Amino acid sequence: MAGRQHMVEKIDHSRFIILLNKRFPEVAANVDECSQGLLHLEMATLARATQAAIDEQDKTTILSHFKFIDEVFRDAAPDVENAVNVSYLENLRFEGRRAGPTKARELLTPRLKRALAELEEYLERLFSEAERRRRGG
Hints:
The structure is a single chain. By secondary structure, the protein is an all-alpha fold. It is about 65% helix and about 0% strand. The protein is globular. The N and C termini lie far apart (about 65 Å). The model has no long low-confidence stretch (mean pLDDT about 90).
C-alpha cells in the first residue's frame, strides 16, 4: 500500500464551508444570510462560537474548535489561511476577566500558537510604526 499522497487538496473557501457544516453544523447554522458566501464573515462566525466557549470556559468545545481550525490552517489555500489569521485568531480574546482560568491560549495547537505569535508580532510592528508616525518621528 502506498503512503499518503504528497499532493494534499488545499482547503479553499467552498471546502472550508463543507468541513464547517460537517464538523460544526450548529456553528454553520449561525452564518446569517448577509454573511453567506463571504469567507471572512463565515470565519468570524466560528471565532464568535469559539469566543463563547472561552467565555463559558468550555474546554471540550475550545479544544474541538482549535483542532478543527488547525486542520484547516495546515492545508489552507491562501485566502483561507488569511481568514484564519484575520477573522479567527485576531478576533479571539485570551486575556481579561471573561477569559477565566481555562487559559485558552495554552490550548492552542503548536501551529496555531506560532500563527498567533506571528500575527501579534506583525500587529505590534504596525502599531509601533503608526505611533512613530503620529509623533512625527
